[in-house]
Amino acid sequence: MDALYPRLLVRDFPASAAFYQAVLRELLGVEPVKVLPGYANWDIEGEAGLVLFGRDRLAAAVGTADLPQAAQDTAMLVMKVDDVDAAAACLARHGATVVAPPQDRPDWAPTLRTAHLRDPEGNLIELQSY
Fold this sequence. Notes:
Elements: E1 4-10, H1 13-28, E2 32-36, E3 39-44, E4 47-54, H2 55-62, E5 75-80, H3 84-93, E6 97-104, E7 113-118, E8 124-129
Parallel strand pairs: 1-4, 5-8
Antiparallel strand pairs: 1-5, 2-3, 3-4, 6-7, 7-8
């Protein structure tokens, strides 16, 4: 169901993807489910275990592209939810800050809808449905 998993936001996507592909294959016997330009994911026992995403793509989506790379996000927590709009409202009621409101992202995946928020500590969260 991929309800909750980490996503690493990487500068050098090809090097990072090659690293995790080799390491996860050797240590866990896991092959990537999907590898696309700027995106790769690995499942462990049918659930998302790790996703890599090009940092520049996400920085553009959440409005941090103008920050120095050292100040950009390097990871985020992804939550798959039934209703992105309702989940974003819930997180905001509990103190999260919306940085990219709910929106469809057909350029990322055909039926993907996301919202990006920051928890009270500033950690980036992506809510998604597809």
